[in-house]
Amino acid sequence: MTELLTHEEALSLKLWERELVLKDRKLTPVEPQYAIVWEDPTEMDDPVKVTVPSPMWLAMAMHGNCLPPVSVYPLPVDEKGAVIFPHPLHDDVIPAMTEEEAMEYLLMKDVPSFVWEDVTANKKHFKITKRTMVNTDRSYRNAWRLAA
Amino acid sequence: MSTIKIDTIEDLSAGESVDVTYVVHGTAKAYGRDTYGGGIPTIGGISLNVSSVTDVSTGRRKYNFANVMADNGFTGSGCGGGSGFHMLEAYNVAYYEWSVVSDGGGYADYPGSAVVHGGELA
After folding, report:
1. Can you list the residues of chain A whose pLDDT is less than 70?
2. Most A-contacting residue of B36, B46, B50, B68 (CB-CB within 10 A), to test interface
3. Which residues touch B13 (CB under 8 Å, ≥6 apart)?
């Protein structure tokens, strides 16, 4: 992949500015192959949820020099829900990831930690799978469950 | 990247003007349009500040932000295809969850929907 944004330049920009710069420089969105299928262990009657990256975000992840280390998430908020220290979001960037690595990053960013960090459960509450493996018939969407 | 520092943008002929602060704070901070692909919603090629879409259940979706919002005082407006309308379900600085409700009042799957967000970024 051609480097459209250098590490040094990225560090002078905020995260949202990096996305705009990469759009401006014609970064090609990447159609995702994978999805995260997950269940909320606190709401066992709910159907599974399916998270799919946006093509632009996936392209940013695979380009590198754009996203912050995943350890910055979740950002701490005050009692009113406002972000207290936004700077970790903008202060550092990580190198390019493969699509598989980007899915693991997305799991830790966009899926609640009690889903993927639960070491007490006797089964995993998520699976990263090919999108083509997900059911195409939504007639019984609210009955979808994670196979054992 | 270059920077132009100004206070006001003014139309040459009509003399109408707008404060740059208004433009900065008034522009969309995130948007996305999703359609069903393989049975689950996927974001179309063009989006802004959306890292992923979560298919929550029938008629319910969640957009996760790439750059989180500064606080919960942001807005979201959208449309859901067909005759459905958009209803807010839950939100915080990191995501916005909404549903598409049919005329009959129940959650309904429509083949596509779109949302635009305003507010302040962290």
Report:
1. none
2. B68
3. none
Which of B82, B72, B77 has its CA nearest to residue B104? B82
Q: Are strands B75-79 and B112-118 parallel, antiparallel or unpaired?
A: antiparallel
Which chain A residues touch B64 with a CB distance below 8 Å?
A: 51, 109-110
Amino acid at B16: E
Identify which of B61, B52, B69 has the alpha carbon closest to the alpha carbon of residue B118.
B69
DSSP tally for chain A: helices H, then strands E: 6, 3
Contact A52, A75 (CB under 8 A): no
Residue B82 pLDDT > 70, yes or no?
Answer: no
Residue B96 Cα to chain centre, angstroms:
8
Query: Average pLDDT over chain A, rounded to whole?
Result: 94
CA atoms lying within 13 Å on the CB side of residue B44 = 12
At residue B38, φ and ψ (nearest 5 deg) are 65, 25
> pTM higher than 0.95 for the full model?
no
Measured distance CA(B23)–CA(B26) in Å, rounded: 5
Question: Phi and psi for A35 in degrees, rounded to 5?
Answer: -140, 155
Instruction: Inspect the interface and report whether the beta carbons of B93 and A83 lie closer than 8 Å.
Output: yes
B52 contacts A110 by C-beta, under 8 angstroms: yes
Q: In 10 A of CB B18, how many CB atoms?
A: 12
- Both tokens of residue A61? 């992840």
Note which residues in 45-84 of chain A have CB less than 8 A from chain B: 46-47, 49-57, 60, 67, 73-75, 77, 80-83
DSSP B42-53: EE-S--BSEEEE
